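Re-run with default settings, no changes from the original entry. Doing this only to confirm the output is reproducible before filing.
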Amino acid sequence: MTRDTFRLAQVFTISRGSRTEAKVLTVKVTRDGVTGWGECVPYARYDETLESVEAEIAGLPADVSRAALQELLPAGAARNAVDCALWDLEAKKAGKRVWELAGLPQPGPEITAYTLSLDTPEKMRAQAEKNAFRPLLKVKLGTPDDMPRLEAVRAGAPDATIIVDANEGWTAEVYADLAPHLLRLGVAMVEQPLPAGDDDALIGMERPVPVCADESCHDRASLPALKGKYDIVNIKLDKTGGLTEALLLLEAAKAEGYGIFVGCMVGSSLAMAPAVLLAQGAAFTDLDGPLLLAEDRPAPLLYDAAGVHPSEPALWG
């Protein structure tokens, strides 16, 4: 295990605070001379630190299997890094790609959102104008004074599809007041408008714009509590605890009629690579972590007009 730090291209702010770097944990598993690797981003919102995640991983048996891992560690960042490293290891030892081992169709590029950091309306408009060429923009909000920000982004990027992430920052009253304006401004989705512990207020509330569960949805065990509140679920590897559970959550959520949004923490291309497999055909994809960095891994993911491309074997899988 190694702790790695990647500088951000600019300060990144959400309703819970700001950062200038991404601190990640890189996990390598070597067996029979072959090494697989994975990355996780411990998240304070879920009471995770680099130290706590390292301690969880250090307690695992050296020969742990992916199946056993699901029982030994809970959903979260620690399990994610090990799970993805084991998938990479299996693929390298088999001489196949992870998508083949998982029985998935060959993946292609997916259009990804580009995230606009929370800031003043003037600065958010400038961010929007700079990125107006992108087809999908994700706007970080989550304060009682968000309307001027959203109006500014729409003015700066009149043709882009916009999705909004409140990061649990609104009350039911604020959301109810904003909802009609989200529709008016052409917002395609709103993510986690209310705190996860207070989202029962969404039951029976009008949802003129589809509402996505992020902090309220971690793994398959989360699904029963989402009924009647959400239309879409955000699947993140650092929440599910890896690709193994994420694939199962994907199928279970689809079976229950939820739309799929594949998201990420702010990490490197290594963290995004497994999620690209999940994102195939998703309603929305937000795997822009590397686009927010000033530096990345060797053999990074390719981003172009077609979106984020699947990884090359030199990176992962």
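The longest strand covers residues 17-31. The longest helix spans residues 77-94.
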